[in-house]
Amino acid sequence: MTGLLLGVDIGTASSKGVLVDPGGAVLARFVREHAVSTPRPGWFEHDAETVWWADFAGIVADLLRAAAGRPLAGLGISGIGPCLLPASESGEPLRPAILYGVDTRAGDEIAELNAELGAAEILARGGSPLTSQAVGPKVRWLARHEPDVYARTKKLLMASSFLVHRLTGRYVLDHHSASQCTPLYDLVAGEWAEDWASRVAPGLPLPDLLWPTEVAGEVTASAAAATGLPAGLPVTAGTVDAWAEAASVGVREPGDVMVMYGTTMFLIQVLEEPRPHPGLWGTRGVVPGSFTLAAGMATSGAVTDWLRKLVGASFEDLVAEAASVPAGSRGLLLLPYFAGERTPLFDPAARGVLAGLTTTHGRAEIYRAALEGIAYGVRHNLEAMAAAGGAAGRLVAVGGGTKGGLWTQIVSDVTGLPQQIPAETIGACLGDALLAAEAVGMEPPRGNPIAATVTPDPVRGERYEEFYRHYRALYEATAETAHFLAGQHTAG
Fold first, then answer.
1. Which CATH superfamily groups domain 4-243?
2. pTM given for the model
3. I need a labelling partner for 41 at 20 to 30 A (CA). Which of 149, 228, 237, 273 fits?
4. What is the spatial distance between Cα 317 and Cα 404, in angstroms, rounded to a whole number?
5. What would the pLDDT profile of 190-227 be if each residue is shown by its tens digit?
6. Torsion angle in degrees (nearest 10) through CA of 444, 32, 423, 323
7. What is the pLDDT of residues 343-369, one digit of tens each?
């Protein structure tokens, strides 16, 4: 099969699409921004119609104009996840989608399921500890707090599977996304854990399982009329955006690690076999038989953006100033836990700390300390991965934070590991198009070539060793106070 490939990704704050030729070259790209709804503290939602579907339809229209009538070979889709979108038998949304780990409403249900099923048993069977990232507790929250909605729910959808269903009529979910539905999925067996699912999601039919490299179905006549896509166009099963982005940069072999620099920091490491760790998420990968460990910091770019706004400067100026500051930020140490921390601490009440301040410090030292603090967090997560038996081999850095060079250099200096920087930073939608090529049986495109490599500096690395030791100790020393202060933030 020959023809152009489409890739569309639904993100937290924007959606992106690309048009790719059979060789993997990006011919066109489009972005649409949208907002997240936060109706209550700790709740994060998207309206599937006005965000997911509207963005998809608009981007597809842009891509089809760019294609100018040339034949299409396939469409790949990804989106934020894991999410919970309750839908009717016909696939119509019954309420806004409950988003991934940033939505913390199901804390009581997490504790309840840990007591009911056993935290150790959940980790061993599902590959991940129960956290706000998991779908299972949110399903139970829905049944308990919105029983009328749950009673009408006949489909459990995510961003990608919602679009797949609307385009093809198929009710499917890829194995990777399913493996983030803890405790509904058995990671080792590679199938739904029917006994646990019947207790956590009683009466809810679960979707058929496919791989992101498989075709879920073809665009129906009604979907073609609504979008302009040709009827019969193959559509992949889809997956979660970060894993599609990892596929876009060739992170597919055991030991490969993707480090995503963005509003949050996210890491994915490919494994040959499941290696559950209480401080990480263990999942299936994007190709049959593969497994991954994943880690995520609650804030990274969000901290640097907060600082930029606070001091009223541009990123370019702050990076230039911070680059002139020596390693260690002249005696500053920052804990970047401004919104709690996800892996490997799983401490939603952790808070940011800036230690060592004097009147001689300015915005340059503070900005560098923020970059260094985030780098220490990356090292902490990589060490947890190594402890699980997944020592990093090759690191590939992606995302907007790779621009400018300073941040990636600091991360390499702190970790002692080189990082490869790919030519394209457009993200998951490129991975979607490449997965679509694989799904329809095309010759694999060349992918996203490596444009540069960041090499660690051993002199700075030696200096960072002692700072890293104090970074780890600072959290332990301030955790009790941070938890007290976190409670004051909502005390009115």
1. ATPase, nucleotide binding domain (3.30.420.40)
2. 0.93
3. 149
4. 11
5. 999 999 999 999 999 999 999 999 999 999 999 999 99
6. -150
7. 999 998 999 999 999 999 999 999 999
